[in-house]
Predict the 3D structure of the following.
Amino acid sequence: MNKDFMRAIDELEKEKGIPKEVVIEAIETALLSGYKKNYGKSGSVKVEIDPETGDYNIYSEKTVVGEIEDEGMEIDLQRAKELDKKFEIGDVVKVQVKPKEDFGRIAAQTSRQVILQKIREAERENIYEEFHGRESEIVTGTIQRISKNNIFVNLGKIEGILTESEQIPGEIYRQGDRIKSVILEVKNTSKGANITLSRTHPSFVKRLFELEVPEIYDGVIDIISISREAGSRTKISVVSNDANVDPVGSCVGNKGTRVKSVVDEINNEKIDIIVYDKDPAKYISNSLSPATPTKVEVNEKSKSALVIVPDYQLSLAIGKEGQNARLAAKLTGWKIDIKSETQYASIKR
């Protein structure tokens, strides 16, 4: 090794972001592996590389003793004194080892894979650190391939996986398509970072609204809660921190352009935008949109509510297969029981 080699390591650090120390440590490990493979494993051997010149030295660490029992691990006091008069029994001496002339060639052949492996490990760790902590963040990538109903998305430095359960029902995916999704989970595995993506998670809708509605991004409007049955319907509750800003109108946009952009991205899924209210009765009433309840009785202790709607709106309030009521309950966190006015009147008799 020489200064040109060390300059190459410096370039590797700049281009791939791998610390110089990591590469040098990998080379030291490789040289040590090559030495032990070709010249035996006895004794405690260390390899040290000068980070400036690239020169390397191999040392055998030996303990100073009065009488040698293991030549690989020990050195007698007289020999140690010849190296440095300060050595005493019990000290550890670094004795330089002179490998055979062909060691450079042998070590290069033996260590090449070790070095490459260390570099790959460092690259994988860098990628993991880049994505770690970015859960729920929206990313855009290109569909690289589709295998066993799983979609592999090219995110630049790494592929993310969109499993079948995280795909919006009814969507058609094609290789080469650009696609948005949120990072659901980032794991560090022996093979590197494993990134799971989602288009069905409620946070995907939240991030899309943040992109389309500046008032949400700026904090003028807050998203309180989202309940979603991907591919079918989503309810989102919002509140304005400015009395002059209409939270629903801002989310819908001029002629519905903002909400349409979100709907288009999630395969025409229906979206109900609800005004949040601190009064549970009003919030629950709003959550059952498009139905308009005439009365809401709440039980704070059990966090349950009895909702009364006009007879002709009972099926609307409940929704197809109970979806509207189910999403409203998820949105508010309250157990909701819906009755028509006729049913309620019969209960009160």
